[in-house]
């Protein structure tokens, strides 16, 4: 849920984003996902989206740094919202990989 607030001084509105959201991304989600899935590589710098090598590295680093948090969100959602059972919380497998495998089939 994204909460909206109004500044008491200037009366402008602003949104409070949860920590898991990354605001102001310049590229489409599909392009970012392709970099994370290694569909777009640094050798593809001449692609139509023209990504800089440093941009790709920043996305990959952000993803690696946040993978445990993403896994935690997936496990919590699966258990609390989808009622998938406690074994979901303790499986050693990465749920993100299972989701990617399921989508790619």
3D architecture notes:
With 105 residues, the protein is mostly helical. It has one domain (27-104). 49% of the residues lie in helices and 8% in strands. It is built from four helices and two strands; from the N terminus they run E-E-H-H-H-H. The protein has helices at 29-36, 53-81, 87-90, 95-104; strands at residues 3-6, 13-16. The chain has a two-stranded antiparallel sheet. Strand 1 (3-6) and strand 2 form a beta hairpin. The chain is flat and about 50 Å long. It starts with a strand and ends with a helix. The mean pLDDT is 82.
List the helices and strands and how they pair.
Elements: E1 3-6, E2 13-16, H1 29-36, H2 53-81, H3 87-90, H4 95-104
Antiparallel strand pairs: 1-2
Distance between the termini: 31 Å
Q: Which range best describes the helical content: under 10%, 10-25%, 25-40%, 40-55%, 55-70% or over 70%?
A: 40-55%
Shape: flat
Structural class by SSE content: mainly alpha
How many beta-strand runs?
2
Number of helices: 4
Give the percentage of residues in beta strands: 5-15%
What can be said about the biggest beta sheet?
Answer: 2 strands, antiparallel
> Strand-and-helix sequence, N→C?
EEHHHH
Low-confidence stretches: none
Strand order of the largest sheet: 1-2
Mean pLDDT: 82
List the domain count as a whole number. Answer: 1
Over all CA atoms, what is the radius of gyration?
A: 18 Å
Domain DUF6431: 2-59
Protein name: DUF6431 domain-containing protein
Pfam families: DUF6431
